[in-house]
Amino acid sequence: MGIFEGKKGLILGVANDRSIAWYIAKFIMDQGGVCGFTHLADADEAKQKKNRHRVEKCVEQYPEQTKFLVPLDAQSDQSIAEVMATAKKEFGEIDFLLHSIAFAKLDDLKVDSIATSRDGFKLAMDISAYSLLAVCNAAKDILKKAKVDDKREEVLEAGASVLTLTYYGGERIVPGYNVMGICKAALESCMKYAAYDLGIDGIRVNALSAGPLKTLAGSAAGVGEFQPVYKQMAPLQRIVTHEEVGRTGGFLLSTMSDGITAETVHVDGGYSEMGTPGRLLDKYRA
Ligand code: NAP
Predict the structure, then answer these.
(1) Residue 270 belongs to what domain range?
(2) Does any domain span residue 171?
(3) Domain assignment of residue 1, yes or no
(4) How many structural domains is the chain composed of?
(5) Is 130 one of the catalytic residues?
(6) Is 191 in the pocket of ligand 1 (CB under 6 A)?
(7) Of 58, 118, 142, 263, which has the maximum CB count within 10 A?
(8) How far apart, in whole angstroms, are the C-alpha atoms of residue 180 and residue 6?
(9) How far apart are CA 234 and CA 274, in angstroms?
(10) CA-to-CA distance for 21 and 12, rounded, in angstroms?
């Protein structure tokens, strides 16, 4: 029996079959879970159709375990509320919620952080950080509350788990990641405060900090350039895979991680713990 047997939840942020959200969703569905998905909403009907089609191609592989696919614009409270209403109608309560959403305009990513435009900063923060708070608030009535004994000593039934995706550029300076690094710092803080707010009901909120992976958002943020450095600097001397991130994401959304909340878990081959460039220095010693 899979660890997600009988569990149901929401996956926000699949763009295509390279998306991190898709790898986490696949792990969940392979373990018996049922998911509701979103695709990016767009005022232009043709563009929205295209966005939907890309996600449809993924979820079609799991017809039994896909409950719905609806549009979401993370900048719109109404759109978020509509997604939650669909989830309530289809699922009642949910056991897991994945937030795997980020966006910044290329014009803002390509300039020095200090040259970020005011509008671009607001846009990137709105989609990439604030949306986690908005989603948690809109979902709070459908996120399953834990059942505990009177003394809060024993968990009789586990509460829901929420997970967001972050990157090391939110903790340390990663040149090139720029405004998105600032957004990730804010996102990680949002995650902790949301964990506090929802913790009273036994609902957990965590972040997974993934090493650089080639995806649409990843390529826009220049992660391709970081990969060779990770390969030489990380203790594991390699780049992590989509599958590895998918598995840890699944673990954090499952009851297997039931004592973990307000935490950022790194899946980066150990890169973020290095205090010097490590074996990368060998290149300069020769
Ligand atoms: P991705 O496949 O491009 O996923 C990003 C998702 O955010 C897409 O589904 C995108 O929709 C969605 N999105 C953007 N604006 C939105 C909006 N206004 N409303 C709703 N959805 C919106 O790239 P990914 O790499 O898997 O990114 C997922 C998360 O992982 C992001 O938070 C990213 O920062 C984080 N992360 C990525 C890496 C990496 O190396 N790739 C490393 C660490 C963390 P459309 O694409 O359809 O526009």
Answers:
(1) 8-284
(2) yes
(3) no
(4) 1
(5) no
(6) no
(7) 58
(8) 36
(9) 7
(10) 7
- Give tens-digit pLDDT for 99-152: 999 999 999 999 999 999 999 999 999 999 999 999 999 999 999 999 999 998
Q: Is the CB of 217 under 6 A from ligand 1?
A: yes
Measured in Å, residue 128 CA sits from the centre of ligand 1 at: 9
**Cα distance between residue 238 and residue 270, in whole Å:** 10
Residue 154 lies in a domain: yes
Task: Indicate the residue type of 217.
Answer: A
Tell me whether residue 167 is one of the annotated catalytic residues. yes
Q: Which helix (H) or strand (E) holds 203?
A: none
Evaluate whether 45 touches 67 at the Cβ level (below 8 Å).
no
Q: How far is CA 228 from the centre of its chain?
A: 24
CATH of the domain at 149: 3.40.50.720
Helix axes 131-139, 178-199, angle to 10 degrees: 20
User: Which residue ranges of the chain lie beneath pLDDT 50?
Assistant: none
Can you give the pLDDT at residue 285?
A: 79
217 CA distance to ligand 1 centroid (A)? 5
Asked if the structure places residue 2 within a domain, the reply is no
Catalytic residue among 23, 62, 168, 177: 177
CB-based contacts of 141: which residues, under 8 Å, 6+ apart? 84, 88
Amino acid at 259: G
